[in-house]
Design brief:
Layout lengths: L5 H42 L3 H16 L3 E7 L7 E9 L10 E3 L3 H4 L1 H5 L4 E3 L9 H9 L4 E9 L2 E10 L8 H59 L3 H16 L3 E7 L5 E8 L16 H6 L10 E3 L9 H9 L4 E9 L2 E10 L8 H98 L8 H11 L1 H33 L7 E3 L1 H11 L1 H7 L7 E5 L6 E3 L1 H25 L14 E8 L4 E8 L6 H4 L19 H13 L2 E6 L5 E8 L9
Parallel strand pairs: 13-15
Antiparallel strand pairs: 1-2, 1-6, 2-3, 4-5, 5-6, 7-8, 7-11, 9-10, 10-11, 12-14, 15-16, 16-18, 17-18
Amino acid sequence: MSILPKPDRQFNALQQAAYQLSSCTDQIFRQIEQEQILASIVDRIRSSLDLQTILTTTSTTLRQFLNADRVGVFRFTPGSGWDEGEFVAEDVVAEFNSAMAAKVYDRCFGSQFATYYARGRVQAVADIYNAGLSDCHVQILEQFQVRANLIVPVLKGEELWGLLCIHQCSNPRRWEFSEIEFVQKIAAHFAIALQQSEYLEQIKHQAALLVQTTARERALLRQKALVKIVNKVRQSLAFEEICQTATKEVRQLLEADRVTIYRFNPDWSGAFLFESVVDPWKPLVGASPSIEDTYLMETQGGRYAANETFAVSDIYAVGHSDCHIALLEEFQAKAYAIAPIFEGDRLWGLLTAFQNSAPRQWQTDEIELLAQIGEQLGIALQQAESVRQIQAQSIELKQILEELQQSQMQLVQNEKMASLGQLVAGVAHEINNPVNFIHGNLTHLNEYVNDLLTLARCYKQSDPEAALDIKALQAQAEDLDIDYILEDLPKTLASMQMGANRIRQIVLSLRNFSRLDEAAFKAVDIHEGIDSTLLILRHRMLKMNKGQYKVEIIKNYGDIPLVECYPAQLNQVFMNLISNALDALEEAIADGKLCADDQDNSSTPTIWISTRMDEKERVEISIRDNGIGVKGNNEAKIFDHFFTTKPVGKGTGLGLAISRQIISEKHCGTLILNSSLKQGAEFVIRLSVKLQNQSIS
């Protein structure tokens, strides 16, 4: 039984009901405010495309609503295993430090707590010093002056992205369930914002890729056009063909109505030389023989002479003069872009793209393409000029070559005539002796024959019927010395026969040397060729023998087989080498520098000629002299055409060059020089017994 009077009990009940009603009203207003805040956050997430703005403004709104000291959004560093991160958004009261500047490292979080937070775990701590937290965890919270905190996970899909942190720094705080639930809702909408941000980034990335792809495709098309023109420049020497390709490719790539190549005249007027134009626009090439642009003529190329490009999107909107607009209207142009064409350092002309149908905003890459094509056309111009110069030089060099060939033929002919002179002199000398001998005997033979004829006439005039007047005939015979005639006539005939045989041998030797009656290629006895050469040169040695010294020829012939060769050409080599040896001996004798040979201990002017088979079964022919030898700096040039150490007029410098050419090119052999100054010179020929390629020319 209540001790209170009934009215008092009613008052208390009413008072309690009023309190409950007030509390419920506060809760309702709080819930309404939460819903309003949540709605504003959702609306902000929907309307804003910037994640950072969403996180920052939401942190401010949430801190004010919860009356907390700090609200921050903490993000884990990707790839760190949830052991480190930083605050990416924050709102904090002025009395406490900002958490935005510091990196947070918690080596235990990733292994011990990350999985639970990813499943939705919430941590509400009223007082960090009475919650059983680890010392390292407390130290991290103390770093940010935290006394109580509420931690709610922020997920991105199913992965833990970060934490929404509510900090009370001034004192402990007991977190209400409604507050925890509200913060969880905010974190859930953060997840939506994160997904929205990711989708937006993907869209931006895809858009960027699309832009890049489009730009790349355009760049690729430009590159293909440029490569095609560059290849045309490199492959074609026809400037006209290059220009036609360039104008067509550029027009198609830029989708322009007309692309032209304009060339300046010396007075800076000009004319269109090439163009690519679409219907229905009339061609400009050939329409006017000379175009006079006052700007270009007065400024001598204007800005283009400074290698500048120029583009106009609308000819009526850039302040062109009336005469300039009239000229462009003749070209039917509404917009244009121009790049210069240089030939070296000289402005040669202009590459122009025209848009006739409407104004056009030219892109930077389009103008750059024009400039690049203009540079390539400049290269083509230089190439065409180089080709023209090369062709002119080629014609000039051809004429020079023909003159040189004529000179070379003349020199070779002179060399042949010199050899022929030696040959004729030798043959004349050799034939002269037996001919003189025969000629001298002809006088005696004539006398003998006349005496015999006289005796015969006397015998005929005697009376045939009378007895033979023996005494008269005997007297006549005694007067003619018939006994002597009978004794000397056979000797005279024998001497004349000997001379005739000698002449015959000389002719045979000459024929052997020249091989006039033989095929060009055959197997021959090398020794016969050497001997024939020596016979022809004997007159020269006899002439040298009239002085103090007598030239000695020492032959050391080995056992060698017949050699397949061109005999006449090989004999020419022998003639050149032995003649050079005689020249060297003459020079050494004249200068008193004849060297003594160590091997033969001889100071006599000597030529050694030897043959043998070398280790590679090749025939080796050595022609050595004991003249003064060859200077070291001349050895490398001794076989060069026109090189000679002889005085002017004494040699052509072709003998050794021709000799090496005959040996190496005609016979696939070698001709080398072994020489030391004051120790003589040795020329060594090596030939294969069988010539491998008989078709060598």
